[in-house]
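re the bet — no i am not wrong, look at it urself. input seq straight from the record:
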Amino acid sequence: MTVRRTVWLLAGASSIPLLIAACAFESVASTDGVAPRDRVVFVVVPGLGWDAMPPTFDHWGKASLALNSVPRQRPIDVYLTMAKGRRTGGLPALAGVGPLDARGVGIAVRNWDSFQQHDRGLRFGGHLGELGELLEDHGVVVAVVGRSEDVAALIADRSGKLGGLALGEPSRDVRAVGSARLVIVEAEVGDLERVSEATAGACRIVASGSAPPDEGLGAIAISPECGLGEAGLVSPSTRQPGFVALPDIAPTLLSLVGVSPPNIFEGGVVRAAHPVSRRRLIEEDRRSRVSRDVARPLTTVFVLAAVAGLLGVSRERLRLPVAAVILAMPAALLLMMLVPWWRYGRVAGIATLLVIAGLLAAATVAAAGREPTRVVFVLCTATTALIAVDALRRGTLELDAPMVNNAIAAGRFAGVGNVPYGFLAASSIVAAALALERYGRRALVAVAVGLTFVVVADGAPMFGADAGGVLATVPAVGVLLLTWQGRRRWRVLALPAVAGLCALAAFGAFDISRPAAQRTHLGRTLTGGSATATQTFLRRELTALNSFRTSQWVIVAAVALFGLAVVWGRVPTGLALRAGMAAIGVAAVIGAAANDSGVAVAGAILFVAWGVGLALAQPAGAVGTRRLSPVAGNWGIPRFRPPSPG
């Protein structure tokens, strides 16, 4: 096949994501808002979790509330995030709203200027006080009854001013709020039932005002009068039934009081979802906490697995089994979420991962007749299929999987996380390279379609929603398809980078074309203006650089590179496999730069590459040609044997 035909094939394949995206649909409700209510009562309760919620609220709409904007989850940080509709927080330990200053006809937050300066340094975009500013602009009368001055942060406008604040007993003073359309109450758990009785008939929302004592998930409950039923809740920012995030509060309140939420918010309007019970919400909280705590120990297990691979270099009997376990660990990381290991603690999580990986590896080695290339192909294909299909299901297996999408961290609830993306990119490229090595041109169309499916599953807004993955995968795939026959025309190799930008632009354009309630982080960033996009880019790149200092994946990447350097001379590589390894290098470099996890992406990619190199390495002293025929022998890899004594 000529380079021209290959380029046309790439162009055709890159158009498939648009066709698939145009025909796809969201599986959760797509309503843009809820009907306005005559009166809305918003009750915030510091330290509230579902285990402390009174039974009265079991018949309301329910969800877990992800509170994390920064490591400290105090009331002031939570209130600022709620009112901003975007992430913020992390004020100094002694910072607070009070005391308040009298300015003109109202009062103002004395420390507001320092709050704004701190918020700009976080580079999350947006402005503090967006909720209060919009309520004031639309003439919505707001009344506040609080136990502390910090609750003033919920209704302050962009300049830090607010109409009024009444400090007192919530269950008593909430009756004297006059004709206010929105009533904000700061209460304690013991006040909840009395406040609910005092505001009966109104649309009521109860939400955590700070992290519970166990630093887990918070709680949110919405009364049936709000029109969201008595089942579960979901929001556009989570896309997972039973989960709502702090930035969803502002647009939801605005929608309930009759104000159309603008596109400046990171969150969206809360909607009704599938039924969910208190017991399930408490179980989800436990799962999230244990998964968060086991993330670092489990990363250490991946480090040790990479180091153990070095033992297989000199011990032939261990080489293939160890390599198979390494290649099975990415799939096991997701499959372990089918087992309720979190009920038994962190040790159970580590044991579950190792048992599943060991069983997968043993079954694959036995079924493949200990043929290394077949073992690699089967495990890489299985990993690719598992992560890609799970992405089509909004990443349900990735939610709360260790090292992936933790609900408490609130970084991502649905789609493909950065570490699974690394596993997906490397596994799909290796499987494609081996197919081209074995079947040559006969496999080209199937490989192109399969890799396009991977790009769509990973990057489409309604599926994986992984913008950084698209930027890295498309150029890597282009390098593989353009060089697998050995041709390297450098001017042509510039096309994959352009294709990656075009694919990201296509996904971004599609995301923007959808209703605001359905847009992912990519669409919200692009519609937030150039300032928001610039801040997001700078924050991601600074975080990526910092990962090289803080992440254990640096060790994984270093061990993998060292191991590959040791065994590379013993791997019988053909043209397609060499092109695949070059594509993996492209994916690792761009992936580390395009994702805020930085070295974690490169480490995950190199972890798979190290398992492949270890599996295919021949014994020291073996002789034979290193060049492979695309159709010869067992997957084109001849069996090397030591020279005879004669």
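see?? The chain has a mean pLDDT of 84. told u. also The two ends are 45 Å apart (CA to CA). so pay up
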